[in-house]
Amino acid sequence: MPSSQPTAGHLAVKPEYLSSQPSPMAKASEPNRSKSYDPKKPHITETPITRANWYKHVNWLNVTLIVGVPLFGCISAIWTPLRLKTAIFAVVYYFFTGLGITAGYHRLWAHTAYSAGLPLRIFLAAVGGGAVEGSVRWWARDHRAHHRYTDTDKDPYSVRKGLLYSHFGWMLMKQNPKRIGRTDISDLNEDPVVVLQHRHYLKVVILMGLIFPTVVAGLGWGDWWGGYIYAGILRIFFVQQATFCVNSLAHWLGDQPFDDRNSPRDHVITALVTLGEGYHNFHHEFPSDYRNAIEWHQYDPTKWFIWTCKQLGLAYDLKQFKANEIEKGRVQQLQKKLDQKRAKLDWGVPLDQLPVMEWDDYVDQAKNGRALIAVAGVVHDVSNFVKDHPGGKAMISSGIGKDATAMFNGGVYMHSNAAHNLLSTMRVGVIRGGCEVEIWKRSQMAAKGEILQSADGERIIRAGSQPTKIVQNSESAGAA
Ligand SMILES: [Zn+2]
Ligand SMILES: [Zn+2]
C-alpha cells in the first residue's frame, strides 16, 4: 500500500508494483489445480449443456459427498436407533465443526479478522476439516474472490445465478477455473497449518469427519454405528447445509442497513442457522471485523467463541472497526433511502427553473384577476387554494398582488412548515428586484454545495428550510 494518498496526475501504485504482480491467470503449478486440468484445452463449461454431454458438466465427486453420502445416512438412520448420548454428542460436535468453518476458515483464514496461536489454528483446521467443505486454502481462496467480485461472474457463488446455485449448485456443477476471480492467498501459503491441512486433506476429512465421531461414541458408550451415522454422516450433512446458507440465504433474505448496491443482507434467521454469520450486509462492508453481529443481543456464537479464545490466551489482535465508521455507513444508507423517498415527492419547481417576473408585471397580473402572491421574492399562483385556505379566504386574498413576505412569516400568522411546503408547490415565478438578492444568494449557495443535494442532484429541503421561510434574527425579534 502506498503510504500517502495519490495526487492528481500520479498513479495510486507504482508501475513497478503492477508489473511485479502475478498474472490473474492461475499457474499450472498451483497445488490446488486438478492434474487433468490443461489451461490450453477448452473447459467443459465453455460448451453448452446438452442431453449428450450433461453428465460431463456434473462434478460427480461433490455430488457423491454432498448428496449421495447424506442420502445414505438418511436411509441408514431409519434402522439406526438414536441414543440420547449420541444425539447430544452429535449436536456438540456439529457446533465445533461449524465453528471450524465460521471462526476458522472464514473469520481467521479468509479475512484475518484476528490472529490465533498454533494450538487454536491446529484445532480449527482439524474440526473445520470435519465439516467436509474443502481445505482451508481452497475455501478461503474462493471466499476472497466472493468478497472481491460479489455478484459478478467472477464470484464463485454469485446469488445472481439463483438461490440454489449460490447454495450448492456451484459445487455440484463443474466450474471453469478461468472464470473465478483471482485473489492473493500468499499469506495462507505461509501458514504451515494451512499448507499441511491442504496437503493431507483427505486424511483429515476421513479422520475428523467420520473416524473421530465414530470412535468417541463407540468407546464412550458403545454406540459405534450410531456415532458413525448421526455424529458422522448426518452431522456433516447439517453442518454443510448450515454453512452453505451463508452464500445463499445471507445474500437473499433480510435488510441492508449498510449498503444496498450488492446482495448481502442481515437477518436473524440466517444468523441462527449459520452460527452467527447472518449479519452479512455488515460483514461485506466490514469483512475484517471479527464480529458479524455488533449488538450484544444479536446471535453470533462465532464472535463469542473468538472472544472466549482471546480470554484464554489462544487468540489475539481481534480486529474491530470503529463505531464512528460503522455509524457513517448506516447513516449514509438511511440518507440514501430518505433521498429515494424524497425524490418521489413534489417539492415545487426549483427556483432557478422559474421564469423571472418584473414587480410591475406581477402587480398587473394580480390586478387582472390572477391570484398571485409574492413571498420572499417567489411568486405563487394560489387561485385553486384561496377557497381552501385554513385562515380564511379574506386573509389570503389580502395578500394578492402584494409582497406578503412579512404577512406569511409572522406579520399576520407564523405559517407552519407544512404551509411553506404546500406553498412551494404553487410557485410560478421569481421577482426581479425586491427579494431578488435573497433568492440568487440561495441559488449560489446551492451551486457551492452549501445547500444539501441528494445523490441524484436534487436539492434536499430540510424541515423549515423552504426559501419562503424567512428565519427571524433572534436579536431583533427579542428587541421588538
Ligand atoms: Zn457473502
Ligand atoms: Zn466473508
TrEMBL record:
A Pfam family annotated for this UniProt entry: Cyt-b5
Swiss-Prot/TrEMBL catalytic activity: octadecanoyl-CoA + 2 Fe(II)-[cytochrome b5] + O2 + 2 H(+) = (9Z)-octadecenoyl-CoA + 2 Fe(III)-[cytochrome b5] + 2 H2O
Annotated TM spans: 60-80, 87-106, 118-140, 204-222
Family stated for the protein in its record: Belongs to the fatty acid desaturase type 1 family.
GO function term, MF aspect, one: stearoyl-CoA 9-desaturase activity
SMART domains the record matches: Cyt-b5
Membrane topology note: Multi-pass membrane protein
Biased composition (Basic and acidic residues): 30-44
Alphabetic keyword roster: Electron transport, Fatty acid biosynthesis, Fatty acid metabolism, Heme, Iron, Lipid biosynthesis, Lipid metabolism, Membrane, Metal-binding, Oxidoreductase, Transmembrane, Transmembrane helix, Transport
Cytochrome b5 heme-binding domain mapped to chain residues: 354-432
Protein role: Stearoyl-CoA desaturase that utilizes O(2) and electrons from reduced cytochrome b5 to introduce the first double bond into saturated fatty acyl-CoA substrates.
GO BP annotations, alphabetical order: unsaturated fatty acid biosynthetic process
Cofactor note: Expected to bind 2 Fe(2+) ions per subunit.
Signal peptide residues on this chain, from the entry's feature table: none
PROSITE patterns listed in its UniProt record: CYTOCHROME_B5_1, CYTOCHROME_B5_2, FATTY_ACID_DESATUR_1
Protein EC: 1.14.19.1
Localization per record: Membrane
Cofactor field: Fe(2+)
One cellular component (GO) term of this entry: endoplasmic reticulum membrane
Protein name as annotated: Acyl-CoA desaturase
InterPro entries: Acyl-CoA_deSatase_haem/ster-bd, Acyl-CoA_DS, Cyt_B5-like_heme/steroid-bd, Cyt_B5-like_heme/steroid_sf, Cyt_B5_heme-BS, FA_desaturase_dom, FADS-1_CS
Renumbered residue ranges of the record's region Disordered: 1-44
